[in-house]
Design brief:
Shape: globular
Strand content: under 5%
Number of helices: 4
Radius of gyration: 17 Å
């Protein structure tokens, strides 16, 4: 017998998938910020400064969407708004370029960062 899923169950699954996609989008936006900043440092060209600012504003807007109105104070915003995304994504990047045992360690650290991130975010009202 197949159980029909309720709208609430479908919404929950969708919300989790949406949050996961948004999390990775923000990870990539932080990388785009960094690349734009490095290009600006190397060239001094205005276009890289403008892109850096554009990606930063987009990241901040998406973090606010992900937080769903939860308020963060002081360094929590900086941690949750950027550094967790950077550390998580960098752990994945490092895992690709190392031997199997080190890759497993990097993935475990990424999972820990992911868990800590959500415990901070979900703990806020």
């Amino acid at each position: 017998m197949t159980k029909k899923r309720t709208l609430a169950e479908k919404s929950s699954k969708y919300d989790i998938e949406r949050k996961f996609d948004l999390f990775f989008k923000i990870c990539n936006l932080t990388s785009l910020e960094e690349h734009s900043a490095f290009n600006f440092m190397q060239t001094g060209e205005k276009k890289w400064h403008d892109l850096w600012k554009f990606f930063r504003e987009m990241r901040v807007r998406n973090v606010l969407v992900l937080l769903e109105g939860k308020k963060l104070k002081y360094d929590e915003w900086c941690m949750v708004g950027k550094h967790f995304f950077n550390a998580f994504y960098r752990s994945l990047e490092v895992a690709v370029g190392v031997d199997f045992e080190e890759a497993k360690k990097q993935i475990e650290e990424a999972k820990e960062l992911f868990t800590i991130f959500w415990s901070i975010v979900e703990g806020k009202k």
